[in-house]
């Protein structure tokens, strides 16, 4: 039996590493050392467990979705309800751990980047609770399409910096956050939002998110008496997916699927299909797969989901694809929005658009596997933040437009 769980950095196969300015090496070394010590420290583990249980609201539910399952060929679909966590997504799992580590490091300020705003809201929330100064970098395009989350961050006391360079999305926000960290590393800790970036971030974020998969594995065994046939999660940078997959990596009977953003389709240039159209290169301090042109320059990505609109991916995902343990598929903007509507109207649950990519993938997968299959989908976030996008897409404000109708 092959063991894939708890793979340690700095490299995952040929991917990962640390490609950063010399000025950040000491900070990353300190972060690595303190994280390795903290996760073995019973007092730190106990405090983090208490925060997850009594502040974030864990364990999150595992909910069967019988009416939605009808659209997936009758396969039984279960939803891992990260949307029910405090702040509305899986991001709080990672942020609470890294904020606690910031206090352990003796630093007084945190910075973060955000695309869809979920990581930014979670970081601002933790900063308020721990009494830390907080600055959030966000692309100007994402600020426009995630205005509600920007307001939430500011109400929580964070400074939100609009990034107007490049594509004005997540990739450029990460660039600006790294520049801030280089200039202010003595008092500042960078709370990275996904399982990408230089070592130790990919492994550390995986460690903090693996609670999603561990809970799911125990809950599905309790509810059905057996492991699922498949587990599905959306993939941008890949933090919810790597957290979901980790507990199942050594279960050979469980197929794992990541669903990335095919945007307007792979026949166009407007997608974020890093795993299926990317090549190996270096982005944001790590060797991984990324969208790039013939000269090696990073290509701008596109997705209707701000959280998946990223040109790279976490290095562990590149490794898991290279060894064939995880299959990475995609969902277009149109298929995703259809899945968002279907879950809303069949189960009364409005998913984040990121999560709707996984739902679209689960519909296709369920039809392939048939009615005897059991599938768990990571519902990584709730859709409140995406209502303006949904309103425009479905023309919900048009009194003459009927979006629902008979399912």
TrEMBL record:
Residues 57-381 form the Tryptophan synthase beta chain-like PALP domain. Pfam families: PALP. The keyword Amino-acid biosynthesis applies. It comes from the Bacteria. The keyword Plastid does not apply. InterPro entries: Trp_synth_b_CS, Trp_synth_beta, Trp_synth_beta/beta-like, TrpB-like_PALP, TrpB-like_PALP_sf. Its cofactor is pyridoxal 5'-phosphate. Its EC number is 4.2.1.20. The modification N6-(pyridoxal phosphate)lysine is found at residue 91. It catalyses: (1S,2R)-1-C-(indol-3-yl)glycerol 3-phosphate + L-serine = D-glyceraldehyde 3-phosphate + L-tryptophan + H2O. CDD domains: Trp-synth_B. PANTHER family: TRYPTOPHAN SYNTHASE, TRYPTOPHAN SYNTHASE-RELATED. Belongs to the TrpB family. This is Tryptophan synthase beta chain. It comes from Gulosibacter molinativorax.
């Amino acid at each position: 039996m092959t063991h894939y769980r708890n793979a340690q950095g700095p490299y995952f196969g040929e991917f990962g590493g640390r490609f950063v300015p010399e000025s950040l090496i000491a900070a990353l070394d300190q972060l690595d050392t303190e994280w390795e010590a903290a996760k073995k420290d019973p007092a730190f583990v106990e405090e983090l467990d208490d925060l997850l249980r009594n502040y974030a609201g864990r364990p999150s539910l595992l909910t069967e979705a019988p009416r939605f399952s009808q659209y997936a060929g009758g396969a039984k679909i279960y939803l891992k309800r990260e949307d029910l966590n405090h702040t509305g997504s899986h991001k709080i799992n990672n942020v609470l751990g890294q904020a606690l580590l910031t206090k352990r490091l003796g630093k007084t300020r945190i910075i973060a980047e955000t695309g869809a705003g979920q990581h930014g809201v979670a970081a601002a929330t933790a900063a308020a609770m721990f009494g830390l100064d907080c600055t959030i970098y966000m692309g100007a395009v994402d600020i426009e399409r995630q205005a509600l989350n920007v307001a939430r961050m500011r109400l929580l006391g964070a400074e939100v910096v609009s990034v107007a360079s490049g594509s004005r999305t997540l990739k450029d926000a990460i660039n600006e956050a790294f520049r801030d960290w280089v200039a202010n590393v003595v008092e500042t800790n960078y709370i990275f939002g996904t399982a990408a970036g230089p070592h130790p971030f990919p492994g550390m974020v995986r460690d903090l998110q693996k609670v999603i998969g561990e809970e799911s594995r125990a809950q599905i065994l309790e509810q059905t008496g057996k492991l699922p046939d498949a587990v599905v999660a959306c993939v941008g940078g890949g933090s919810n997916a790597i957290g979901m997959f980790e507990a199942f990596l050594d279960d050979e009977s469980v197929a794992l699927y990541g669903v990335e953003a095919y945007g307007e389709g792979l026949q166009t240039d407007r997608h974020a299909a890093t795993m299926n159209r990317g090549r190996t290169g270096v982005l944001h301090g790590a060797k991984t797969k990324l969208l790039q042109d013939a000269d090696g320059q990073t290509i701008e990505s596109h997705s209707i989901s701000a959280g998946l609109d990223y040109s790279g991916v976490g290095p562990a995902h590149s490794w898991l694809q290279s060894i064939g343990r995880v299959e990475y598929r995609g969902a277009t903007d149109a298929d995703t929005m259809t899945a968002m509507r279907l879950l809303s109207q069949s189960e009364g649950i409005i998913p984040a658009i990121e999560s709707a990519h996984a739902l679209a993938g689960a519909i296709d997968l369920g039809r392939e596997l048939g009615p005897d299959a059991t599938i768990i989908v990571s519902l990584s976030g709730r859709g409140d933040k995406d209502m303006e996008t949904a309103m425009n897409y479905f023309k919900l404000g048009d009194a003459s437009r009927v979006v629902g109708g008979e399912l």
